[in-house]
Structures are given as C-alpha cells and as structure tokens.
C-alpha cells in the first residue's frame, strides 16, 4: 500500500485551496483510515476560508478542512471492533475541532483518519456520493434534537406512536433540516416545518406533516397555529434569521420552552467578495454580537431557553453512539432514513473542492454539494 496522500489544503486566508502531496500515517487507537471516494462541503468550510482570522484561531495553515466523507476502510487502529478493511463507510471528520486540531482528520483529502465512533457502515446499494451528504448535517440535527442541554427529545427507537407531540423545524429544506425532520419523525414526533414553496413536497416526503413558507409574513402565526392542539416538544431554528421567529413560536405555542439554534445571527456569505475585509470583518462581528445579544434578551424576557448548537459536539457525548452506531446503519439499510438532501456532484478530483465551496456559498436549495474522489 502506497503511503502517498493528496490533500486540498487551505494555505492562507482568501486563497483558493491548493492540491498538495502529503504523507500518510496509520490510524491510532479507536480510529480507522478511509480512502475517500466522495466528500461533501458545508457552509463552515468557506466561512473558515473567508473569515478564518477570527474563527478557528487554533488552525495553523496549511490545514485540511472538511467534515463529510464516504469511502472504504483501508486500515483500522487498535481497539476497533465495528469495522474491517474493505468496509464501505461514511463518517464525520473532526480534524478542525479545537481539541483535535489534526489535518489528518480533515475530509478534503484522499485518506482521512476517522474516529470509529463517528463512522457508520453504508448499505451495498448506496453510492458514496449519496452517503457523503450525511455526516455534519445529521450530526448538527442530532445535537439540536437530542443533547440534554438542547431539546433533549426522546431518541429514535423509543417512539411512542401517536403521542401528539410536535417538533418545529424552521428551515426544513436545509441540509441540517432535512436530517432533523427525519430524526424527529423516527423518534415518534409530528413535525411542522418551513421551506420555500418549491420545496414543500420535498420536506413532506421526508416526513413533515405541515410546511409553511418561511418568507411569508404569517409564518410565525401559521406555524404556531399548526402546533396548537398538540404539545410543542421543542423548536429547532435553522437558517440566518431563524432564531427570532422560533423564539416567538416557542413563546406563543406553550409547551417546551427550548429553542436550539443552528445558525449565527448574520450571514458570512458576502464577506468572500469584500475587498475591504479589515473594515468588513469588525463590522460583521459587531452586527453578530448586537443581534445575538438582542435575541438572548428577547428569549429571556419570554422565558425561552435559546442555545447555539455545536454540530460536532456529539463526539463527546452519548449522541455520537446513538446516531453512528445504534441508529444510522440500520435505518439506512432498511430504507427508513433517506440520505438527504440529494447530492449535486460538481466534479471529480481534489481540485474541484474549491469549486464545491464556491458553489455552496453562492446558495443551494435542498441539495448537497459533493465532489467525487
Ligand atoms: N451550529 C453548527 O454546528 C452548524 C453545523 C452545520 C450547519 N450550521 C448552520 O446551519 C445552517 C444550515 O446549514 P446547511 O448546510 O444545512 O444549509 P444549506 O443546506 O446550505 O441551506 C440551504 C437552504 O437554506 C434554506 N434557507 C435559506 N434562507 C432560509 C431562512 N431564512 N430560513 C430557513 N431556511 C432558509 C433554503 O431553503 P429554500 O431553498 O427552501 O428556500 C435552502 O434550501 C447554516 O446557517 C449553517 O451555517 C451550523
């Protein structure tokens, strides 16, 4: 087996990723090494690339970003019991996490080291491109729905059918939302969600009972009315601008007073095109701080607990095993959980990862941007 690896590395702020040759080491205890055949991109990847100076300060460039991989196991470390060489897997790559800080564990390369606990076998009939859409979107949804400090919902498999409890997922057609709808339904909840009208059928196919246009003036009233009659079990806010309507829904609907927040209060997308970053970044930070402060005051005054999710934090608690070991492999195998949103492959090879980041940043709708390797 050759020890050569290639990476699509971030080399400097605002510079395109560079394809580089890199060494390859063996996986450590409770780790596996995967030959990646498909990787997907997430907003955080281009946010780090365009605004990284104040985010993920611990990352020393060159570094390998990326969270979503699907491929084949080529080596297993000591203590690994769930996987063997040759298994087809998907996994959450956590190399950019502060307490990991290891480019070998980033997604945008040919070979990635994964924690065994953050990988799942994929069924024979499922493509790597389809499987790669899952890891971070699914993990973020699971953290929001199931972590004890977030919505603390019942787990999939412990469902009480017809319990009449409703989960609100604001932003159901996002990657995080597509997973959240399915997880909440698998746990026995009725789901009320929001999306653009073009995606109403899409979120219904994932299991949502009712869907409303988040851009409508009546969205908060519509969602609140759809919850009435049952008990609100929790509210998951996804998308820039989602926090405030979700706090208002949790206040008006009664029931659970918890709102899990996936998105920062302001969008970073415009930053990439800015030529005056030294002015724009402090301005954006100021808007971020002031919007977050006013949101937290609004929530507190209404008696609502609103907390931000950290989508990789399931690596440190029971939600990681719940998802990657206990739930996902079986649910993919029996077809009850659909890898969503569907992949849009923008190219093959590491040189196309930058195109994938640019495509994601330009805006997607109910699709996940994927690169074949
Ligand atoms: N906290 C974490 O750890 C974590 C992890 C992953 C993602 N996130 C955040 O979660 C959000 C979603 O990420 P993603 O990768 O799932 O997004 P994505 O798939 O790239 O989001 C695209 C979708 O956003 C929807 N959308 C746009 N504006 C919206 C709004 N105001 N309200 C609700 N939906 C809206 C669009 O829906 P339509 O096409 O139907 O209009 C589109 O389908 C982002 O803000 C991302 O930064 C956070």
From TrEMBL:
<dbReference type="Pfam" id="PF08240">
    <property type="entry name" value="ADH_N"/>
</dbReference>
<dbReference type="InterPro" id="IPR047122">
    <property type="entry name" value="Trans-enoyl_RdTase-like"/>
</dbReference>
<feature type="domain" description="Enoyl reductase (ER)">
    <location>
        <begin position="12"/>
        <end position="371"/>
    </location>
</feature>
<dbReference type="InterPro" id="IPR020843">
    <property type="entry name" value="ER"/>
</dbReference>
<dbReference type="InterPro" id="IPR011032">
    <property type="entry name" value="GroES-like_sf"/>
</dbReference>
<protein>
    <submittedName>
        <fullName>NADPH:quinone reductase-like Zn-dependent oxidoreductase</fullName>
    </submittedName>
</protein>
<dbReference type="InterPro" id="IPR013154">
    <property type="entry name" value="ADH-like_N"/>
</dbReference>
<dbReference type="InterPro" id="IPR036291">
    <property type="entry name" value="NAD(P)-bd_dom_sf"/>
</dbReference>
């Amino acid at each position: 087996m050759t020890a050569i690896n290639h990476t699509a590395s971030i080399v400097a702020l605002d510079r395109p990723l560079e394809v580089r040759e890199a060494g390859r080491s063996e996986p450590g205890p409770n780790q596996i090494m995967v030959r990646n055949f498909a990787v997907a991109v997430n907003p955080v990847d281009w946010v780090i690339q365009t605004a990284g100076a104040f985010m993920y300060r611990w990352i020393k460039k060159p570094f390998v970003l990326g969270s979503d991989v699907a491929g084949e196991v080529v080596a297993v470390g000591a203590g690994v019991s769930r996987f063997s060489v040759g298994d087809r897997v998907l996994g959450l790559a956590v190399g950019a996490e502060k307490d990991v800080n290891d480019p070998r564990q980033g997604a945008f390369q040919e070979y990635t080291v994964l924690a065994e606990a953050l990988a799942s076998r994929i069924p024979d009939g499922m493509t790597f491109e389809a499987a790669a859409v899952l890891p971070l979107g699914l993990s973020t949804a699971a953290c929001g729905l199931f972590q004890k400090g977030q919505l603390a919902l019942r787990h999939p498999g412990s469902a009480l059918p017809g319990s009449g409890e409703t989960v609100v997922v604001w932003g159901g057609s996002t990657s995080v939302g597509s997973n959240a709808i399915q997880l909440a339904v698998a746990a026995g909840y009725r789901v009320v969600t929001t999306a653009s009208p073009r995606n109403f059928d899409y979120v219904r196919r994932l299991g949502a009972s009712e869907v409303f246009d988040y851009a409508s003036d009546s969205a908060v009233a519509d969602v609140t009315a759809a919850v009435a009659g049952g008990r609100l079990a929790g509210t998951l806010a996804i998308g820039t601008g989602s926090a405030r309507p979700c706090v208002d829904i949790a206040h008006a609907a009664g029931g659970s007073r918890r709102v899990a927040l996936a998105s920062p209060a302001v969008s970073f997308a415009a930053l990439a095109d800015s030529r005056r970053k030294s002015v724009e970044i402090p301005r954006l930070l100021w808007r971020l701080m002031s919007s977050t402060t006013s949101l937290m005051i609004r929530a507190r005054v209404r008696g609502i607990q609103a907390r931000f999710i950290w989508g990789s934090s399931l690596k440190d608690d029971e939600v990681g095993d719940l998802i990657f070991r206990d739930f996902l492999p079986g649910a993919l195998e029996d077809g009850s959980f659909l890898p969503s949103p569907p992949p849009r492959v923008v190219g093959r090879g590491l040189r196309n990862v930058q195109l994938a980041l640019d495509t994601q940043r330009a805006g997607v709708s109910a699709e996940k941007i994927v690169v074949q390797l």
